[in-house]
Design brief:
two-stranded antiparallel sheet; 10 helices; Arginase, Chain A
């Protein structure tokens, strides 16, 4: 790949890959994510996937308590040839032509506007830079701080604010590198990581695990349900583990799901590398989700995932940014998650500015137990 801008360095830090060019993806205003102006509202809101969310994520990592433990690296745009490792030529050509034509709404809420295609190429290429950094042995933990997000983008179509599947491209790079024979993807976005799952649905080299709210299909661009019976096909049967959690699942429920389902699956699969696709829209205050994670929950998940990487994949962990639409709380939850990854005893946790949620985890625990009972005889490893 073209890696002139892909930097090398550092240990004992989180290597963050970022490029300001991704802010140039303008998603507009309207009624939530529709882009519509009904004519009777004085104040229209920004599309939830707007540049402000990333500006705050960048600033909290540059000026927050963990800033001394962050190493910053530039990204670079992906080449068209690299995109074909995951996406079909016909789909990539559709995107290129849409960009040449001045933009297009590809599906509900998903607008390719002037500047969007360049930002999407940067997001994909920056994620590849983060993966290459780890594969080349320059660091153990890399975080691709990118937008537009990618995990809904399927090999042949856009979906859910996503054009290119950044994580899927990085996973394929890892498999093609010769460094990794098996890769595990853990997706904690509040929505099902359907695009990544579809891309590896027939592969036994990639274990895709998605913890999401039980939202089902939302139309032609997202035909997948994210249900427990979507297990993969052919050689990949049993290598797609869906964990649809009931609305309102909070810190305890997510940790229970990790302990009962995610950790045992990773232990048995034995990946050479773990990719964590982080959605901060599973928080209690996100406008685009109905789950109730707080900073403390994200902090615990960060520690669990990094411990898994250290135990099973020689510490190799690549984190890829997905959703998270509360402009301030998403940044706080990101900081908390990376605190968990770092596990620094000398650093007190950043206080939670707003969260108090008296979680009742009785129902979520029952659902998780039922998922475990359903899938225990269906996983081949």
């Amino acid at each position: 790949m073209a890696t002139e801008a892909c930097s090398t360095v550092t240990v004992n830090h989180i290597n963050v890959f970022w490029d300001e060019g991704m802010l140039k993806h303008e998603t507009g205003i309207g009624v939530f994510d529709t882009g519509d102006d009904p004519g009777f509202l004085d104040v229209l809101e920004k599309h939830p996937e707007n540049s402000d969310r990333l500006r705050n994520m960048v600033s909290i990592l540059k000026r927050g308590p963990i800033s001394p433990f962050i190493s910053w690296h530039p990204g670079s745009p992906a080449l068209i040839s690299q995109l074909l490792s995951f996406h079909t030529p016909e789909y990539i050509n559709e995107l290129v032509e849409a960009d040449k034509g001045g933009g297009k709404m590809l599906c509900a809420g998903t607008f390719l506007n002037p500047g969007s295609w360049d930002a999407a190429l940067l997001a994909a290429g920056t994620t590849l830079c983060a993966m290459k950094h780890v594969l080349d042995g320059h660091g153990k933990v890399a975080y691709a701080l990118v937008r537009p997000p990618g995990h809904h983008a399927q090999p042949s179509q856009a979906d859910g604010y996503c054009f290119l599947n950044n994580a899927g491209l990085a996973v394929q790079l890892a498999l093609d590198s010769g460094v990794c024979n098996k890769v595990a993807v853990i997706d904690i976005d509040v929505h099902y990581g359907n695009g990544t799952a579809e891309g590896f649905y027939r592969s036994n080299k990639v274990l895709t695990i998605s913890l999401h709210m039980n939202h089902g299909s939302w139309g032609p661009s997202h035909p997948h349900n994210g249900s427990i019976d979507e297990l993969g096909e052919d050689e990949g049967y049993g290598y797609n583990l869906n964990i649809p959690l009931p609305n309102g699942t909070g810190d305890n429920g997510y940790v229970y799901a990790f302990n009962e389902l995610v950790i045992p699956s990773i232990q048995k699969f034995g990946p050479d590398l773990i990719v964590l696709t982080i959605g901060l829209d599973s928080s209690a205050f996100d406008p685009n989700g109905r789950q109730c994670l707080t900073m403390e929950g994200y902090r615990k998940i960060g520690k669990i995932v990094h411990d898994l990487a250290k135990q099973y994949s020689d510490g190799r962990l690549v984190i890829v940014q997905e959703g998270g639409y509360h402009v301030t709380y998403s940044a706080y939850c990101l900081h908390a998650f990376l605190e968990g990854v770092l596990s620094l005893a000398s650093l007190p946790p950043l206080p939670d500015p707003i969260a108090y949620y008296p979680e009742d985890d009785t129902f979520s625990s029952k659902v998780i137990d039922a998922i475990k009972n359903y899938q225990k005889d269906k996983l081949p490893f």
